[in-house]
Specification:
alpha/beta; 2 domains; seven-stranded mixed sheet; six-stranded mixed sheet
Length: about 475
């Protein structure tokens, strides 16, 4: 059993067995932490932050990040297989995730180099004559990061990497389903020269310990990726002064507005809807098409979805892997069955392939009041809706309490710009699916979908303060 509680001499509270979501085989056993371990981790991190003489210099952080990227680049195959095995994302997509994660580490270093501070334009009024002012970046404090399962390496890089680059001690709680990629990343940081207490992994044994980790007054910044219910609850319990960023889910709308490239739209929507079995917070879920074209497009999409290879995530030819838990297969099946019973046309899928895999599914015109139309399904299901009026389609797209990324397919630039303006979303992709993302981009859930802005440069901004210095001199 691996024991990660390096900052504590206390015995483990229990054991977490990590299993493959595809076939249930045991991947590893990990020691779990309780309230006392959480206190030890936070005490070690907070002591580092309060002792300014122990802060890592910018050159030290840059060297650690460079070495981290080098080690990761030498382990691409190993990191890919770990991520695929524990998270269920197919091998080819997991490899893309690993490459992105390495680039993310480089981006942390680039951001650290390029954002040192600002010169404040004073000395322009009689009251400020003889003064100069500028800001420098300082770490905000102890960062606590709670992560999700669906990108087990890249999400950790997005939370832990910026903390290290910003000079913040970080305590990270990975998803219980997918802790192994997180553990390996923190191990690599330490191999690269990061002192142990600057990045600690805590796998809590119960909800009480997890909540204590987040709500402790020693926490300066809370980074959360996961369900809206949990995220908003934890935010309400943060200690006074603690900052936070929350990244929840959505039910991404995609609008096809003629004229558009049908083949490009089909290819893109197929990838955006069934990538990682739909377990992506901006996955294509609601597809709006002119009613005269909707059934034909939906059937073409269904034919391609039916040909996707569903299977073991470690196999290079697999295109769609398992859902993260067996219970999710049952839940997705219940939602689809409800929609079909209410009048949706099932064009493909609609059934479990195994205890862990659900067939890629396309539904035509589910009613507005069923769950697949109202809630994030987080499964391999795309819903197609025919519309007579484009403005009405936009209104339906905007009708939910969640709002994240959206997409438009159209070759009419004026129409595309109008839809960009009208859609409730933090990002609108034109002629691309809603799940497109580059790690330099801002990534923000609106309304119930989150708080704050993700993306490595934006996260680093949140994890630092702009500390101003004003100098008065008669010679200025």
């Amino acid at each position: 059993m691996r024991d990660l509680m390096l900052e504590s001499s206390r015995p483990a509270v229990g054991t977490l067995t990590v299993n493959s979501p595809y076939d249930g085989r045991e991947l590893d056993q990990l020691a779990t932490s309780g309230l006392e371990h959480v206190d030890d981790a936070l005490a070690a991190a907070h002591a580092l932050f309060r002792d300014r003489s122990s802060w890592l210099s910018i050159p030290q952080r840059l060297e650690i990040l460079a070495r981290t990227a080098e080690i990761m680049a030498s382990e691409v195959e190993e990191l890919t297989l770990v991520a695929a095995s524990e998270g269920g994302k197919p091998y080819s997509d997991s490899k893309v995730e690993v490459i992105r994660a390495i680039d993310g580490v480089h981006l942390c270093a680039e951001t650290l180099r390029s954002h040192p501070g600002d010169v404040i334009p004073i000395g322009t009024t009689p009251a400020t004559v003889g003064r100069i002012a500028f800001t420098r970046k300082e770490p905000i404090g102890v960062v606590v990061a709670v992560s999700a399962f669906n990108h087990p390496l890249n999400l950790i890089v997005h939370q832990v990497g910026p903390a290290v680059a910003s000079g913040c001690p970080v305590v990270v709680k990975p998803a219980a389903d997918t802790p192994l990629s997180c553990i390996r990343f923190v191990e690599i940081l330490r191999e690269a020269g990061l002192p142990d207490a600057w990045a600690q992994v805590v796998i809590t044994d119960d909800r009480e310990a997890a909540e204590a980790l987040v709500t402790d007054p020693r926490v300066g910044f809370f980074s959360f990726i996961g369900s809206a219910r949990v995220g908003w609850m934890l935010r309400s319990k943060l200690a006074p002064g603690a900052r936070c960023a929350l990244e929840h889910g959505g039910a991404a709308p995609v609008i096809l507005a003629p004229p558009y490239d049908r083949e490009a739209a089909l290819t893109s929507v197929l990838k955006g809807g069934f990538y990682h079995a739909g377990q992506v917070c901006v996955s294509v879920q609601r597809l709006y098409i002119p009613k005269s074209e909707a059934e034909e497009f939906a059937k073409a999409l269904a034919a391609r979805a039916a040909d996707l290879k569903v299977g073991a995530p470690e196999e290079p030819t697999t295109e769609v892997g398992p859902l993260i838990r067996r219970a999710e297969v049952t839940r997705v099946a219940d939602w689809v069955d409800e929609a079909v019973a209410a009048g949706a046309q099932l064009l493909t899928g609609g059934k479990a392939i195994s205890d862990s895999c659900y067939a890629p599914t396309v539904l035509l015109d589910p009613p507005a009041d069923v769950r697949v139309s109202k809630l994030e399904i987080f499964g391999p299901v795309v819903c197609v809706y025919g519309y007579d009026d484009l403005d009405a389609a936009v209104a339906e797209a905007n009708a939910l309490p969640v709002a994240f990324q959206a997409a438009v397919f159209s070759n009419d630039i004026d129409q595309s710009m109008r839809l960009y303006k009208q859609l409730d979303a933090s990002a609108v992709m034109i002629n691309d699916h809603s799940a497109f993302r580059d790690d330099v981009m801002p990534f923000a859930g609106l309304r119930e979908s989150g708080l704050g802005v993700g993306g490595i440069p934006y996260t680093m901004h949140d994890m630092q303060i702009d500390k101003m210095l004003v100098i008065k001199s008669a010679d200025l």
